[in-house]
Write the structure tokens for this entry.
Amino acid sequence: MISRRTLLQSGTAALLANSVGRSIAAEPTGEPIYLGVSGPLTGPNAQYGAQWKQGFDLALDQINGSGGIKGRPLRYIFEDTQSDPKQTVAVAQKFVADKRIVAELGDFASPASMAASPIYQRAGLVQFGFTNSHPAFTKPGDFIWSNSVSQADEQPLNATYVVNKLGFKRIAVLYLNTDWGRTSKDHFAAKAKELGAEVVASEGYQPDEKDFRSTLVRVRDAKPDGLFLVSYYADGALIVRQARQTGVTVPIAASSSIYSPKFIELGAEASEGVFTNARFFPEDPRPEVQSFVTTFQAKYGKEPDAFNAYAYDTVVLFGQVLREAPNLDRTTIRDTLARVKDVPSVVYGKATFDPQTRRVLGAQSAQLVVRNGRFTLWDGVKTN
Amino acid sequence: MTSWFDHTINGLIIGNIYGLLAVGLALIFGVSRLINFAHGSVYVVGAYVGWVAVSVLHTPFPVTLALVVILAALLGIAIERFGIRPLAGAPRIAPLLATIGLSFVLDQTVQILFSPDPRSVPMQLPNWRLEIGGGSIGMLDLLIGGIGITAAGALFAFLKLTKWGWAVRATALDRDAARVVGVDVDQVNRIVFAIAAALGGVGGVLVGMYYNVITPTMGFEATLKGIVAEVVGGVGNVPGAIVGSLLLGIIESYGVALLGTSYRNLFAFLLLIAILVLRPNGLFASRHQLPPEPMTGTFIAPSKPIGLPVPLLAALAAFAIALPLLIDNGYLIQTLTNAWLYALLGLSLTLVAGTSGQVSLGHAALLAIGGYTSALLAADYGFPVWLTIIAGGLMAAGLGTLLVSPAFRLRGHYVSIATLGIGEIVALVILNWESVTHGPIGVAGIPPLEFFGRPLYDTNAIYWVAFAIMLALALLQVRLLSSHLGRTMRAVRDDDVAARSFGISLNRYKGLAFAFGGFVAGISGAFTAHMYSFINHETFNTHISVLALTIAILGGMGNVGGAILGAVALIGLPEVFRIAAEYRILLYGIALLLLVRFRPQGLLGTV
């Protein structure tokens, strides 16, 4: 919906020239502490930057509403990069030179994020990629960290759900042909084979693809008994719609990245019966999830999705890191990331870094299915 | 067997959708000889007008369509009046830049008003489906096909039977002659833009309903496919555009059937190149069509380039070298480093397009070839970086010239379209040739730049090396242009018939231009790869090709200093406008439009 609020929000954003995070009335006074965010606010990935902002703002409300960090408010400076490498390197230089910034979050896509890594590593400012699942992302050095769900961690869960619980034996995989999609597909296929299922077709598609009918006929001819999608919500919705139109009637499951109310909006009736293995869902009783979902709904009037959750989790994590850090030196922040234990997290339950890989393991999983236009807990009914 | 039937049906369905855009592009191309990059943006605007009508105003389907037609047509008239007509006397390339600027402005306006989130467009037709083969088709498929064919038929009748139609065709054939015999050429253009925009807008809303999703950025990809379909059918040929679209759809569909989804666009662009090489006027072009006019040179009075005095240039260079010592600002230095690297790309394109008249729209491919060659040799085979960067330049020179050589026999805008296709093919080969390029995973851990064996990390040091390389190659290019080589290349650009009659081998000089330009761009790509430490097939994308052309046009075609100034301006502007947050790309588009409006021959003038 185009509401007056969206218009107002974009208007206010213009006034707040450099997009400094919102502040609320009861927040602590004192010199703010800043996180730098490098991400897309314009260009083809702009929607993800907008979702990040919602997650960040919600987490900041909570942190600053409960006293901030050492009596100081936490804020962020969001620089738009369009997820374009030549802009992320410039923004990286801007952030490393800005002494107010204690750590950097982002960017979105791998080519853009990883182009800036040498600059952050060299300057000794933590680059924290929270959507960067590229297996080599944290390799440039000890200042490069990520809490993005590792696909080596997530995909075996999906394979187990799909093969052991849903009973898929001949699986056709459609995957986004990016570093993320490709890595995910490989991990999924390996585990599915180990569990005794067969991957009868695997088709990689380009991110701007809209027409999947030919792909689906090719998939149909491989006679699968189930489809597995490694997709984001927009392309996932296109695929499920066109699957039914091309006479593909087998059940469909998808990785957690399709978890968004938008998937159901865009997929309409075709999203009915789609299975997924999400990191959280609104009825999840864990307290960190309940607090996230209810405050998110109160603030934005809609249900949060996966990208909102990643952004929220990340700022909550930094809230704890900054509170525990003995001082706000950039190196101390890095050392504290290695030390924090069991940070409450929507995605992980309790998040702890492996200091060697600088990643987090142990993502939560909730087995879901779309029923009556909502994601609900899977009822245990096998499909095959 | 049924699968092939299904693949054919699927090809026709997607071809249908391409047709809605191709018809409008063909019409504009036929009359204005203009690749209209803003056409995809009209399609986006049409889709969002449709969304407002359906979801906010709750209009019935015919009213929705009528609203879209009216508003899109008005937008088309406005584009023609304020974007294109003021450039009537300017070099042919200037309106192309104007449409690029317009597309930025329109896409960004939509994004700011409606947010970047994808939206669903509820379908307003009953969801009847017709079982056919193993799948089914819906009412909307038939309606899209019906509208495409009806529009093409109506346009055909309009062009053949009405007085205004004759005027449009006369203008398409020879604008000056039409004006002489009393055709109101402006009015003709207005009609053409209104009709094309109305069709584009309807296309947007129908495609939005078909996929149940619209986004503010869906126009660019749609324009690319529309251009391919249009060329296949024969540029400026309206019924041909429909047939070309259906053919493109079927070829893509068969491509997927044979080799898999990731080869889909490869088939589309190979078809494009095959058509251009075998039948450059398209499958349905008439025999007695005028040869395409070159996009630069010939009939344009070349503007007087602004000559900068040598002491001033030397002072500017000295200032650029001293800059990191004068201020400690890594952000500024990094931005300028990027500008020097894009200046190399601009130098390459301004030589190829400006001096020898081969307007390339696939220049990012040269960066990619240089970048991948250097990155793979250094990361996978351990060669020293200075050597791999040179190898990257040589590979881009050799492979680039070889790839583009089938296009040497083409003239004018066909070169642009062919190079656009070749650029896409290079990106798709990189994506699919996994054993060498690592496919979508990309090349990670590329060794850093080095200077005589010492790794370069320091921002200032990288800046100096980039500037030195850029300056050296720019001086080499100046030297080249003032030699007989430069004169011959300009002769090829200005009048290839005359040049040939003087015994100049056209292909050899075009090849030389691409080889030198390829080397310069390859060095830039290789340098970038080592600076970034990670590249994949998306690092050097089509948007960079468009940026390269923008740099060359803005600086002044063929002008070495202009390419450098253009790169500084176009890399710098988005950074300067950072203060405007979400509005910065909108401002960038407006700045581009103003620059091309008031300085169509480029900042420093065409050489």
Notes: Confidence is low (pLDDT under 50) at residues 1-25 of chain A. DSSP finds twelve helices and 16 strands in chain A.
